[in-house]
Amino acid sequence: MNIFKILANGDGSINEPNVSAFLGYLLNPYADHDLRFEFLTRFMEKIGDEGFNPLKYDYEILFEQAFRENGDQKKEKDIIDIVILCLEINNGNQKESIVKNILNSQQSLKKVFLIENKIKKNALKKGQLTKQYIKAKTELNIEDDKLHSIYVSPNTNDFIAEFEDPEVGKVVKNKTQVFWNGKESISNTLKDILYDETNAKIEPINDYTKQTIKAFIQFIETDFKSEKQDQKDRKNDGSYTDRYRKLNEEHQIEEKLFTLKNELIKRDSQFIKTLSSPNLSSPRFPYLCVTLKDITIKLHAGASSRDSISFLFQADRNVSNSKRKLAEISRKLNAEIKKENYDDAYCRTSDMQIQIPINEYDLIHSKLKSLINIAQNA
């Protein structure tokens, strides 16, 4: 399960501000992710300022900060996704949440980092970096050497061209482009952190954070697509099906299912007539099936594992009263019918979903016999 992809389903609730919020969370050395300064330090290494040591300073991470030229409320505002205030080590002053209040406090400002985040290839806005930089600089009244613009974007020619535009460079004196994916990217930085943690090169990270980071990396590497969109695209380009074909070949599932069939026939000769040969027409779900008078029992080899078997009752599309039989079985078992309005409607109980190792022939035979008995007496 990938929580980022799932939440992006439907109305696409994982959007650019959400991703910015998670990026800011990872950058915050005081957050509860157990990364401490690890991600912030590696991220800041990309700005190329050899004299800047992130560990020497205190930080405020702020989101969606609005700036207007000269602070004029009548003028159009520009929203900056993430603003990082880098301050001299805090002297115990209460931290404020508004940029100008912090700058007016007794803390000494080292740098301000403006992060503009883009996750979609069509999200480019010409001149945005320049306008943001000008408005932040004039409203905050700080020098160029304390202001740094960071452009986080997809690794595409359009975003690179915008960042490298000479007109942008004339105004934005200090700038860095960081890509979500590819060499020296955020994705690779997170992978490096996980690798170093596994090899005891950095302090341990809690399991929840590690699993969340892995899910986020996958979300990045599928261009921030929802689970539904990712599956749709992979089906359309053939990679989705090819993945399972390759899995079937690597695990020799067809041979394993043939062996299982022969072992079941050895234990009960009636299976010669009712037990099918291995079916790999849908590469994701290879199976054997027992065809009874008006219902089918499928022995699935699983969507990811190819070393175990689970079971389900499925309507036989070639038998007119098969759905009625399925309904009788579902009532008897108190099991919900899935895909009820389709020809391949099915039901199963929780114990039918338990994976039995594919080479446990006696257990599979015993389970199959009990399901046949249920079907015949429903």
Overview of the molecule:
The protein is of the alpha+beta class and 378 residues long. The protein has 2 domains: 3-234, no CATH class; 251-377. It has 15 helices and 11 strands. It has helices at 3-7, 16-27, 38-44, 99-103, 128-140, 157-164, 166-171, 186-198, 207-221, 227-236, 239-250, 253-267, 271-274, 322-333, 361-377, and strands spanning 57-67, 78-88, 109-117, 147-153, 175-179, 287-291, 296-300, 308-314, 337-338, 346-347, 356-357. Strands 6, 7, 8, 9, 10 and 11 form a 6-stranded antiparallel sheet that branches. It has a 5-stranded mixed sheet with strand order 1-2-3-4-5, with helices on both faces. The radius of gyration is 29 Å and the shape is elongated. It starts with a helix and ends with a helix.
Topology record:
Layout: H1 3-7, H2 16-27, H3 38-44, E1 57-67, E2 78-88, H4 99-103, E3 109-117, H5 128-140, E4 147-153, H6 157-164, H7 166-171, E5 175-179, H8 186-198, H9 207-221, H10 227-236, H11 239-250, H12 253-267, H13 271-274, E6 287-291, E7 296-300, E8 308-314, H14 322-333, E9 337-338, E10 346-347, E11 356-357, H15 361-377
Parallel strand pairs: 3-4, 4-5
Antiparallel strand pairs: 1-2, 2-3, 6-7, 7-8, 8-10, 8-11, 9-10
